[in-house]
Specification:
about 250 residues; alpha+beta; five-stranded mixed β-sheet; about 10% strand
Length: about 250
């Protein structure tokens, strides 16, 4: 395959970025998208040019480190992580535009790399439980109804990649926050902080300059782990219940 890339290049958060065009030849359809970027960077290095900076780690769709906007879609044309997107999803001769996540809460560090520390601070605000340390309890010590366990498990699959924010017209991080709130709120171990957790995490979400949620649904449509949109409904119920109790 012969591919034309239009890649966002930006030296730092205070610099003005621009799209730069590169041409690649003999791209294998079996390459992952990140492997294709590796090939581009090898080419740039041999030409004594600065390689394109992009985030990655496990490259197995587990860690959530990778993530770019490809032709206007978070993670690209398939509902998967960027590292699991393969070049066979494109056609010979395609022009592909690659940009970073676009959100005030995700400032660009360099090229395609953004600072997602805002997600970490949301978790620090309430994404934990109070539990005594020591010997682990027996697996059956706290019976949990299967619907609750399934709901918690589904929410826990969130990898914090940020695609929900990149896809949302408001740059809201509500699906991420709702997943973290729901994951712990459905389990008995998460009940002591349930009321304060949702209030503290929402306050931190807003403090980080994420936009407000208007239930457009683009977040769930691009989520590589399939976090359902009604997870946000769970967050709203918890939030209203906490405020009714005078929490926050």
């Amino acid at each position: 395959m012969n591919i034309t890339l239009r890649v966002w290049r930006q030296k730092g958060r205070d610099d003005q970025g621009r799209l730069v065009t590169y041409k690649l030849t003999d791209v294998s359809p079996d390459m992952s998208f990140l492997e294709m970027l590796d090939v581009l960077n090898e080419k740039l290095t041999l030409e004594n040019e600065d390689p394109v900076a992009f985030d990655h780690d496990c490259r197995e769709g587990i860690c959530g480190a990778c993530g770019v906007v490809i032709d206007g879609e978070a993670h690209g044309p398939e509902v998967t992580t960027t590292c699991q997107l393969h070049m066979r999803s494109f056609k010979d001769g395609d022009t592909i535009t690659v940009e970073p996540w676009r959100a005030k809460a995700f400032p660009v560090l360099k090229d395609l790399v953004v600072d997602r520390g805002s997600f970490d601070r949301i978790i620090q605000a309430g994404g934990y439980i109070s539990a005594p340390t020591g010997t682990a309890p027996d697996a059956h010590a706290n019976p949990i109804p299967k619907p609750d366990a399934d709901r918690a498990f589904d929410a826990a699959t969130c990898i914090g990649c940020g695609a929900c924010v990149a896809a949302c017209p408001n740059a809201s991080g509500m699906l991420f926050t709702a997943a973290k709130v729901t994951h712990l709120g459905m389990l008995p171990q998460g009940q002591p902080e349930r009321a304060s957790r949702v209030v503290n995490m929402i306050n931190q979400h807003d403090e980080e300059d994420f936009g407000g949620c208007t239930n457009i649904g683009e977040c769930a449509a691009v989520c590589p782990k399939g976090i359902p949109l009604d997870t946000i409904s769970q967050l709203n119920r918890d939030l209203l219940g906490s405020l009714a109790k005078g929490v926050g």
